[in-house]
Amino acid sequence: MVGRGSSCRRQLQAALLRLLCLIPTGLPVRSVDMQRTTDNITIRQGDTAIIRCYVDDKVSKVAWLNRSNIIFAGEDKWSLDPRVDLVTKGQLEYSLRIQKVDVYDEGPYTCSIQTQQQPKTTQVYLIVQVPANIYKISPDITINEGSNVTLSCLANGRPEPSITWRLLNPSAEPLDGDEYMEISGIMRSQAGRYECKATNDVSSPDVKYVNVVVNYPPYIKDAQNSETQVGQKGVLQCIASAVPTPEFEWYRDDRRISNGQGVHIQISGFRTFLIVSNVTEDDYGNYTCVATNRLGIHNASLFLYKAVIPTIKYSTRGPGTGKDNNGSACIAQSLWLLLASITCLLFKC
User: Fold this and answer.
1) Which domains are delineated in the chain?
2) DSSP 3-state of 331
3) Which of 7, 11, 213, 271 would suit a FRET pair with 144, their CA atoms being 20 to 30 Å apart?
4) What is the pLDDT of residues 158-186, one digit of tens each?
5) Cα dihedral sign, 315-317-321-323
């Protein structure tokens, strides 16, 4: 049935063309195909395509066809598509214009020309390109360190787009992966903003992003002791790294410290301070900073210790009592000259 329908359609098409005087009676359609030349036109989706066909003054009939459908026969429009019209310049051009081209417009277009001798056909194949478009991407994700992660980025376009990934850290180096990128045992250093880029050179690449948050237990990366004199303010500082943001506690021996009685605990994000406003001898000693979140706990020891006041020693000698090597040398030299002068006087006498 399919073959019979195609055959009937071809026969009807040939009959219509013969009625239009584009194919002489008795000339099979196949012989017209043998005179056909084919060119390709590439156009981007949404743009306007002009398919050129040039004629001369000896032409009696012309028509445009798309596959088995007649679009124009002479100046008569057979197509119902409002996007399609003719571009003519006197009797020398008989071109087809298609506005807002879409993918279903792709295919062969035939300009059929009836001359005084025999029909000629010129065929142009219209190729419609579609810019790359990311139509589905993984949502932002929060996951525990050490877990496996698969990020997806699905795109379409014509030609088929290529997909690349980057982690937008300072280096932003390309990552292995295409539509699906797998990360085995993700580490905290792999957290951040991931970029998916779909490219097929038809237009600017389509770019979308996935934010990946990696949870990990706290660790205290900096703990600062305090050397403070009695009566001064002592400050102990503790800085932790963790996701989610840690909670902090302070201890003295096994006793948890709370605000009050000259002690103030200050917490700001990943940093905490233990402030002793007026240090006494009893405040000196070992303190513990504890950072916790739902994944773990970490602590560090800090010390509040007494500042050593340097002792300055003053000399009790009077002026001129200090040792002076240069002065001693001058006195010795003067005595030697005096002795030499006396000796000289004695010999003269």
Assistant:
1) 2-131 (2.60.40.10), 140-216 (2.60.40.10), 225-306 (2.60.40.10)
2) helix
3) 271
4) 999 999 999 998 778 888 889 999 999 99
5) negative
